[in-house]
Amino acid sequence: MAPPKPTVTKTSTERGLSLQGLGDVFVSFLILGLTAFGGPVAHIGYFRRTFVVRKAWVTEAVFAELVAVAQALPGPASSQVGFALGLQRAGLCGGLAAWLGFTLPSAVLMILAARWAPVSASTWLGAAFEHGLHLCAVAIVAQAVLAMARTLTPDVTRAAIALASLAGALLLPPGFGHIAILVAGGLFGLAVCRAAPIAHLDGQLPVAKGWTAAALGAFGLLFLPGGVVFGQLGGWALFHRFYQTGALVFGGGHVVLPLLQSQVVTPGWVSPARFLSGYGAAQALPGPLFSFAAFLGASAPVGGGGLCGGVIALVAIFLPGLLLMAAAAPYWRWLQSGVRARASLQGVNAAVVGLLAAALYNPVWTTAIHSAKDFGLAVAACVALVKFKTPPLAMVCAVVFISALSAALAP
């Protein structure tokens, strides 16, 4: 009789790479992509409850450190944390499954909204609906400016950097001007800001160091040589503009607004009204706010438009943040100990507040506010968000309803 075959015990990595492991990652994040309302901070809370408390994929210490990595890097923080969780659970495929599951629902809805917008805008009800979304954008961006100013400009030095950034954003041409402002903010932060070192966190970051060189190489190749070579070729032009935006967005969330405005509104790819309509609609959806890129890509006349343009823009805006997350996570303890690097980041974050404040004026305010009634409704919506902590979804529904009702009752 032949001896029994030895039992082969799979390692955790081998189990994670199985189809069952990938399916678990994808379904877990798909459920969150369908139900996680409230923006990046709320998303991270959902992640903690699901993957630390309920599923126990990572410890509290590891989760906290992954959040710290994401918040210090360009890109959407909640999506970067989700990518890192999938990466440690099931390797590279797991990271991609986590990103896809969390992003897919809002991306599909954004592409459908882009196809519906031109038809709806031709009717009085559609125009009223669109105008209501514009007013929602005023309230939401104003709330973001106030919240970020409290957090990122707590002293005179950083408040001065933010004011200088605001002035520069209003005076300089968009695009290159925004990049110059972020660079200047980092240099001023390095010179005048003071950052105390912070203690290391416990736990181990489960991201292989072998990813670093490949991820950084891909990031740089696409950002610089890729832009020079392919930046004017149809879909590549669309890809590079959104990739550049994703690589320069510090703070995530609403901070993407001024950079995207300079990339798609300034060259005439998307009108200011359509831009604000998509931004307002994105507030009422679950999942990452960066899915707004799918709406813009589907609306742009380059890259094929529709589904093709939406997919190109979506992948491009998320890709740099995911590459940087994979590259930086294993070395975060070394990075966070650098006082000079953290001082520079303080300057960049303060400059971001000024950029967002400039975007609140143009294009948000100049496009949405046309009468005293518009002003009053936008202020009421902002008070509901800031003072009464009204969920963004409820605020959007209320403002759009009031806008439609006002248009119906108008003589």
Report on this model:
It is globular and about 65 Å long. It has two domains: 13-97, no CATH class; 98-409, no CATH class. The N and C termini lie far apart (95 Å). It has 19 helices and no strands. Residues 1-17 and 199-204 have low confidence and may be disordered. The longest helix is centred in the N-terminal third of the chain and has 44 residues, at 77-120. 75% of the residues lie in helices and 0% in strands. The chain has 411 residues and is mostly helical. The chain has helices at 12-16, 19-35, 40-54, 60-72, 77-120, 124-152, 156-171, 176-192, 211-223, 225-230, 235-248, 256-265, 272-283, 292-299, 306-328, 332-336, 339-368, 372-386, 392-409.
The count of strands amounts to 0
| Sequence stretches where pLDDT stays below 50 over 5 or more residues | 1-17, 199-204
Sum up the overall morphology in one term: globular
The separation of the N and C termini measures 95 Å
Average pLDDT: 82
Radius of gyration: 22 Å
The tally of helices reads: 19
Series of H and E elements: HHHHHHHHHHHHHHHHHHH
Per DSSP, what share of the residues sits in E-state strands of 2 or more residues? Answer: under 5%
Helix fraction bin: over 70%
